Amino acid sequence: MPLISTSSRLGFVLSGALWSALALLGLGACGNKIGDSCTTSIDCSIEGSRACDISQPGGYCTVQGCDRTSCPDEAICVRFFPSMYLTKPCDPKTEDFGSDDCAADELCLESGLCAPRASERRYCALSCSDGGDCRDGYDCRLVGERGSSSLDPKAIGRAKFCAPRG
User: Fold this and answer.
1) By C-alpha distance, which of 62, 88, 48, 87 is closest to 164?
2) 128 CB neighbour count, 10 Å cutoff
3) C-alpha separations of 49 from 1, 13, 37, 44, 139 in Å
4) Which residues of the chain have a pLDDT value below 70?
5) Domain edges within the chain
6) In the chain, what are the helix, strand and coil shares in percent, each to the nearest 5?
7) CA distance 151 to 70
8) 75, β-bridge pairs
């Protein structure tokens, strides 16, 4: 039986430990994508860059408080306004251009309803082109429906995102 020096054994053990640590770091970097199910924010990102919205069925990995550039490639930043506050009708094509149906602290949404600016919440949502792009229990919804709005005026009426069915 050949003898292995103590320093060679130590180098072999340290090398194995280093490879194991690198493999674990690589797995941790994978994380879930926007729109995946989750129970805690760690399920979405171990770095803390994503949050788990447990108010959505099965949880929903997202970035809260997003802007036009903070969502990953598979997602879009969607503005949400609670539907309970969307009561007064307005015309988004003429609002602020000679017609002011909404109060000064309100925004006229694409859906034709005034929304209080203070109620706005922003989340990264998974982009989709049809329902098959979304996980079970979620539909591909057009931005501008049901109290949602886009930060990008060009996306209005075209961009879609995965939202809970119903």
Assistant:
1) 62
2) 21
3) 52, 34, 16, 8, 25
4) 1-31, 95-99, 156
5) 1-30, 32-81+120-164
6) 25, 25, 50
7) 12
8) 126
